[in-house]
Amino acid sequence: MDRKMKAAVLSGYGSPEVIHCKEVEIPKPKTREVLVKIHASSATRADSMMRTGKPFIGRLILGLRKPKHTIPGTGFAGEIVEIGPDVTSFNLGDQVFGETTTNFSTNAEYAVVPEKGVILHKPENLSYESASTFCDGNLTSINFLKNVGLLKPGQKILINGASGSLGTSAVQLAKYMGAEVTAVCSYRNVGMVKSLGADHVIDYTKEDFTKGKIQYDLIYDTIGKSSFDKTKSILTKNGAYISPVLKFPLLVKMLLTTIFGKKKARFEATGMKKEEELKELLTELVKIFKEGKLKSVIDRQYPLEKVSQAHAYIDTGRKKGNVVIINASTTEKKEL
Q1: pLDDT truncated to tens, each residue of the chain (336 aa)?
Q2: What sign does the dihedral 278-170-224-14 (CA atoms) show?
Q3: Could you tell me which of 321, 322, 312, 275 has the C-alpha nearest to residue 8?
Q4: Side-chain half-sphere of 90: how many Cα atoms within 13 Å?
Q5: Theoretical Cys-Cys bridge with 183: which of 166, 198, 267, 330, CB 3.0 to 4.6 Å?
Q6: Two domains, one topology: 4-134+296-331 and 137-271
Q7: CB 23 within 8 A of CB 5
Q8: CA angle, 292 then 184 then 300, to 5°
Q9: Residues 6 or more apart from 250 whose CB is under 8 A from it?
C-alpha cells in the first residue's frame, strides 16, 4: 500500500526558500475525520506571514522556534477518498471544499479534515480552483464587515487594499449588505474593483485617502498599511477602523478606544473563531454565491512543486485577488 504523497514542506521560519517539495506520509483519518484528495489549494498572505513567523506574537500559536505545522496552506478543494470511523455527513467521492484554519497542511496531495470542521459539499458550478480560495478572503471579510464592523445598509465604508483577496471579497460583500463603497487600490486595478461593485475608487499612488474630506462609518484596512490615528479624522462620530492585520499599536488602540471615545479601533483573528461559527459564515457565503453576488478573483496559479515561487510573488505585494496551487496529480489514480 503506497501511502506517500508530495507536499510543500517548511524547513523553518524564513524566506520562500525554506519551502521544499518533498515526499511525506499520507495522513490517516481518525475518528470523525475524512481524507481529502486535494485538487487545488490556496496560497495567501496569511500563509506568507506563517512562513516568516512574523509578527512574533503569532508564534505563540504557530510555534516558537519553528512551525508546528510544516505544510502550509489552509484553503482546499477536492474529493473524499477515505473516511474515518463514525463519519456521518460525508461519503466516499464527495466533492468538498473548506478551510483548515490554524492546522494548515493543504499545500499537499492529501489532507485530513475533521467532519465537524470548516468543510462543506462543493457547489457544482464552483470550480475546484475557485473553491480552494473561497474561504480565505471571504470568511475574514464577512466576519469583519458583519460582526466586527457591524456594517449597516446605507453606511459609507472605505476598503483599503481593495484589489487583494480580502479586498475583492469585501467590495462585493459590502455592496451586498447595502453600503456605499469606496475602494483604495492602484490605478492598474481600478477597472477590476469597479467591476466588483465599488461606487468610488481612490488611486493611492495619486491621493492619500487619510487626508480626504469625506467621512466614513467604517474603514476596513485589509492590508494594515494605515492606522487608527491616521484615519481618525475621516471617521464619523461613531465610526470604526478595523483591520485583520495583527500589530501591537492596533491592539493598544483597540484597548484604549474600548474605554475612551466613540470612535473605535478593532481587531479580531477570524481563524481563531470556533469552527461551528466559521462553518455558519461559510454557509452564508455559499448562499450569496448562489445568488450570483459573489465571485472569486484568481490572479495566478502555480503547481504544487512551485509553492515557494507563489510565496515569492505574494511577498511582492502586487497580488490581485487570489493565488491557487494546482495538483497535477489529481487526474491520476492512487490506491490508498
Answers
A1: 468 999 999 999 999 999 999 999 999 999 999 999 999 999 998 888 889 888 776 777 777 788 888 999 999 999 999 999 999 999 999 999 999 998 999 999 999 999 999 999 999 999 999 999 999 899 999 999 999 999 999 999 999 999 999 999 999 999 999 999 999 999 999 999 999 999 999 999 999 999 999 999 999 999 999 999 999 999 999 999 999 998 889 989 999 999 999 999 999 999 889 999 999 999 999 999 999 999 999 999 999 999 999 999 999 988 999 999 999 875 444 444
A2: positive
A3: 312
A4: 29
A5: 198
A6: no
A7: yes
A8: 60
A9: 224, 227, 228, 243, 265, 267
Architecture of the CATH domain 137-271? 3-Layer(aba) Sandwich (3.40)
Question: HEC string of the chain?
Answer: CCCEEEEEEECCCCCHHHEEEEEEECCCCCCCEEEEEEEEEEECHHHHHHHHCCCHHHHHHHCCCCCCCCCCCCEEEEEEEEECCCCCCCCCCCEEEEECHHHCCCCECEEEEECCCEEEECCCCCCHHHHHHCCHHHHHHHHHHHHHCCCCCCCEEEEECCCEHHHHHHHHHHHHCCCEEEEEECHHHHHHHHHCCCCEEEECCCCCHHHCCCCEEEEEECCCCCCHHHHHHHEEEEEEEECCCCCHHHHHHHHHHHHCCCCEEECCCHHHCCHHHHHHHHHHHHHHHHCCCCCCCEEEEEEHHHHHHHHHHHHCCCCCEEEEEECHHHHCCCCC
HSE toward the beta carbon, residue 24, CA cutoff 13 A: 18
The class that CATH gives domain 4-134+296-331 is: alpha beta
The CA distance from 139 to 161, in Å, is: 16
Q: Rounded CA gap, 266 and 49, in Å? A: 20
